[in-house]
Amino acid sequence: MRRTVPVLDPPFRDGVWVAGDGPANDSPHRRTILAIDGHIHQPERFASDWVKVGPNGDSHHGTAHNEDYWDFGEPVLAVADGEVTALADGIPDNTPHTLAEKMTRDNLLGNFVILHIASGGYVTYAHLQRGSLKVTMHQHVTRGDLIALLGNSGQSTAPHLHLQVTDGNTGLQSEGIPFVRSEEHSLNSS
Question: How far is CA 65 from CA 72, 93, 103, 131, 166, in A?
Fold first, then answer.
């Protein structure tokens, strides 16, 4: 089956951002295989973890608190037009360098939003800040609309945005699909 490759805008307005752990062959995302209910899934195959680089050239100016990271609380934007098809909120943000006591399928993504986009794919935004979701189920959003604030919830040891595109309305039981970044909209350095 041929699929249209989604063209996505950046998930942030301003600043210097690094999309780490991207779809390279040595990325932990590329190599992650999930066995769930007797089926194998690779939803993170083309995922990236976005972090902001601050004026000191690093992602943080301390490591004891989430607020020590330049990206904690940054607005996360819709990368494409779409409809909110899944979300979760209420999971506490982790203390940096500490995972939640018990990781389950229900809290692995932390607070998250999934958008169904025009190309037939689903964009998952994971590890969002608790209580920051600005969208509701079945809400239609336009590129650039505010989705939530960047956090450190779920399977996350420091604030970052986990972004992936999949073929299903789930961040875990789906297959990752490739996407390209819009050349029209690039991140501006501030």
Answer: 10, 10, 21, 18, 32
* pLDDT tens, residue by residue, 115-153: 999 877 999 999 999 999 999 999 999 999 999 999 999
Angle at the Cα of 16 from the Cα atoms of 50 and 96, rounded to 5 degrees: 45
Question: 71: burial class by Cβ within 10 Å (0-12, 13-18, 19+)?
Answer: buried
Q: Which residue has the tokens 């000191």?
A: 56
Contact by Cβ (8 Å): 42, 35: no
CA neighbor of 146 nearest in space, from 61, 72, 74? 74
- Contact between residue 149 and residue 19 where contact means Cβ atoms under 8 Å apart: no
- pTM across the whole model: 0.88
Q: Which amino acid is at 36?
A: I
What are the Cα distances from residue 63, in Å, to 70, 75, 110, 152, 154?
11, 21, 20, 13, 18
Model confidence pLDDT, tens digit, residues 5-32: 888 999 999 999 988 766 555 555 555 6
